[in-house]
Amino acid sequence: MITTAIRVARVGSAAELAAAALMMLGFPALMLAALVPSVPAFAAAAAVTYLADNYLHNKGSYLISRLGRVRAGVSTRFLIRELLVVLLLARMGLSEEPVFYAAIACFITFFGLQAPHGTLTTLIRNRRKMPVVTRNVDLASRIRIPDAPPRFLLERAGEKMLHLDVAAVAGLVVYAFAESVQAAAFAGVGLTLALGTLYIVVLTPYLRARKVPPNDDTVLESVSDWLREYRPETLLYFSGSKDSAYQVNMWLETMEQLDSRPLILLRERVILQNLAPTTVPVICVPGGVHLMNMDLSMVRVALYAANVGKNIHLLRVPTMKHVFIGHGDSDKLASVNPFSKAYDEVWTAGRAGRDRYAIADVGVLDADIVEVGRPQLAPIRSTQGTPADRIPTVLYAPTWEGWDGNPGNTSIMLAGETIVKKLVKADPPVRVLYKPHPFTGTVLAAAGAAHRRITALIEKAAAERAADPRFQADPAAQTAAKAELARIEARLAELAVTVDPKGDEAVGTRDGVVDVTRHEEAARLRAEWNDAFWRSFPSYEHRVIEGAEPRLYDCFNVSEAMVSDISSVVSDFIASGKPYAVTDSAELGVEEFKRQNTAVRAAVILSNSASELPALLDAVRDPAADPLAEDRGELKEYLLGPDEPTSLEQFNTAIANLALKAEARNVGQESRAAAAELPPGKGVTAG
Question: Tens digits of per-residue pLDDT, 495-543?
């Protein structure tokens, strides 16, 4: 029932649900306490409403925004509480006392202060908001960007201003409880008004010209100056929501390794806020007009990771060639979107992508498709067999239930527990790594419950194995590895602070130039962290792997096989060449399942009973007798292209070839324009 209530109220936890319920019940309780009247009950209810409201704000609760839409926003809630204080005083027979009139005057004046305070905070934010936001672009030497106001002045400023009424409310409640302490009431009223006025006074200087960045035209001109100096050649363009930031993040390492000068162009500030660290220059241009007026004439190739409406703002530029590179290869309809014919070329990983477009017949010409492999898969190692010093590892990495909540999307509900039980009881033994999709359980409560049961199974099996005398750990080595992890994490935390955390986006633009040495050190340390992580516990220990680290590809590299569902995880794992099994949770049948999903044609197909699992384990234990090894090799090349030349080499070659086409087009246009301007009789004549 609690889970259902959490989902209906769209709150994040039982504690958040309890806070919401307390706040909702607190206001009727306040009114009842004022009418009775009962000062202790009123004080308790007021404290509950203050604390619950503040807790929900701190959690960023969806309920808070919904209350604002139904005219029960934060200002309304504070005003109601203040009116109820006045009601309490009247019911206590204090309506003829000076304090009563002081309370009314205080609350009217206090709410009058909200207008200049709100105006100031809005003006400061707007005047500090630049038309573009950048990373790794040197604007500090071109324009003056002053420090931001202290963050505490602007962060949740309206809520902070309203909370200054606590002094007045507390003083008046104390007075209502003991009429002899009028001083407390007047002190509270005075403190609230003084603090509110002081807040406004402190904010006012930040509107002065020397406290705000230059105007939009100056900023845009400085960006254009930088572009003309840097002369980017290859541009990665991206637009999307916060949840889609991973689609551009997956290309960052590739962009850093290009032979040509790279630039990343984003359209939403929220994407920049969720962009992973990179050494590539990044320009975020939210305004379409600003983008269309930006000088990008030196760019020859534009890469697009997603098909979105805002792509048209760059597609209109004829001096560069436009390429759809996507954000993963799969059999999903999104991989053959008809919009793709708007680009000069479409790049796919292997032959499979080319065939998809041919079968879909959506207007993309075969001549416009280039196979470049998947550069992002370079970290996946293709070693075969189990190291002599440990038992085999099998990774179980199911996908989630999907937005449609179809149980057939994932094995976690229908087969997950069965798969894990068979794996942990396998003889000869194997180690099980369970890495669930981070969205598991967000749509279906049953999926979340299944995940918890699987986690419990893994933890129980790990405890039983730890007590099994056949398995011997090395406590000294694990202690050393844990100490190394702590050291690395501390240093990574230091390296992560590259921009003043107290600054705003203008300060981020000014100071957001990555130190290449620190960036390379962080990359090296992350690799060391990964190595130390796997050494920090026994190599036979079953483990649940959640969170961003270790990454999925790191789990691939320490596993000898994988069990998963239809998703991009399977397509990526194929790069390893290792045995894998895919669950037919919807029970289509082996032949139909393979017909619909190219990536499973070299997999062991599991039914919901997982009775086929021994075939996967046999392939792990005896790679030489693996009947699907050859099929996996052929499928890998079909889906992802050949191993040589490397995918990065193929990618750079494709960029260079297309840049030549763009340059040839531009030279031709200039020649025609020059010929058109020649006086009559001065043109080139045929001999």
Answer: 876 556 567 889 989 988 888 899 899 999 999 999 999 999 999 999 9
Burial of residue 241 (number of CB atoms within 10 Å: 0-12, 13-18, 19+): exposed
* Residues in a beta bridge with 323: 303, 345
Q: Distances in Å between the alpha carbon of 176 and those of 165, 181, 192, 345, 640?
A: 16, 9, 18, 76, 76
| 8 A C-beta contact, residue 298 and residue 262 | no
- Which class for 331: exposed (0-12), middle (13-18), buried (19 or more C-beta within 10 A)? middle
End-to-end CA distance of the chain: 90
Specify whether the CB–CB gap between 236 and 303 falls below 8 A: yes
What is the spatial distance between Cα 341 and Cα 354, in angstroms, rounded to a whole number? 13
Say which residue the tokens 């026994």 belong to: 538
DSSP 454-517: HHHHHHHHHHHHHT-TT----HHHHHHHHHHHHHHHHHHHHHH--S-TT--HHHHHHH----HH
Please write the tens of the pLDDT for every residue from 146-197: 999 998 899 999 999 999 999 999 999 999 988 778 899 999 999 999 999 9
Rounded to an integer, what distance in angstroms lies between the CA atom of residue 259 and that of residue 113? Answer: 58
Which residue is associated with the tokens 């384990």?
A: 617
Give the predicted TM-score (pTM) of the model. 0.83
Cα–Cα distances in Å, from 418 out to 411, 414, 609?
10, 8, 7
